[in-house]
């Protein structure tokens, strides 16, 4: 387990599938989670949390100090550069706006920089997902570029923003 201020991150267990399905199947959550079909199934959730099929990707569920499972984060080391990790997060709509996203991202970054010896952490976010972009900026991420028409949802293509955070920036950020 990895502990933040108001959350902790732990490995998922089989019993988490139904809760994660309920969290991820919400239309507003589904809008930006990268599932191009817009249809969530329990089989899809199971496939995302089956570690034997994705050895380079690690998912952790987000649990509040009150023991409510509210979503998940993932990380994977990039195949093209050593010590560079890509991350992502999904939090249930009922928990938005309470600082859980920021706490989860900071906790994950702290783990990756200090335990996995990451040099850089990067992510992609849909340009229209202002809530997530603001969260990432509060965690110290900087915009690095735009990937045009990368994400398809609701019958149209949307741009994504590439964001990154270097270890020295994170150290400076948490020291403030």
Automatic annotation (TrEMBL):
UniProt EC number: 2.3.1.57
N-acetyltransferase domain sequence ranges: 7-168
GO molecular function terms attached to this record: diamine N-acetyltransferase activity
Name the record gives this protein: Spermidine N(1)-acetyltransferase
Keyword Acyltransferase: yes
Pfam families on file: Acetyltransf_3
Gene3D superfamilies, alphabetized: 3.40.630.30
Organism: bioreactor metagenome
Top EC class, one word: transferase
């Amino acid at each position: 387990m990895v502990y933040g201020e108001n959350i902790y991150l732990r490995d998922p267990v089989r019993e988490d599938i139904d809760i994660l399905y309920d969290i991820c199947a919400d239309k507003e959550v589904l809008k930006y989670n990268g599932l191009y079909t817009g249809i969530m199934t329990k089989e899809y959730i199971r496939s995302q949390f089956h570690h034997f099929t994705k050895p380079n990707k690690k998912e952790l569920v987000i649990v509040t100090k009150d023991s409510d499972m509210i979503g998940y984060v993932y990380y994977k080391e990039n195949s093209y550069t050593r010590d560079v990790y890509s991350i992502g997060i999904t939090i249930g709509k009922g928990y938005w706006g309470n600082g859980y996203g920021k706490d989860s991202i900071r906790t994950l970054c702290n783990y990756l920089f200090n335990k996995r010896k990451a040099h850089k952490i990067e992510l992609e976010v849909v340009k229209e997902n202002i809530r997530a972009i603001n969260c990432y900026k509060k965690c110290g991420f900087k915009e690095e570029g735009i990937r045009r028409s990368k994400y398809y949802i609701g019958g149209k293509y949307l741009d994504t923003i590439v964001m990154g955070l270097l270890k020295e920036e994170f150290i400076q950020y948490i020291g403030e």
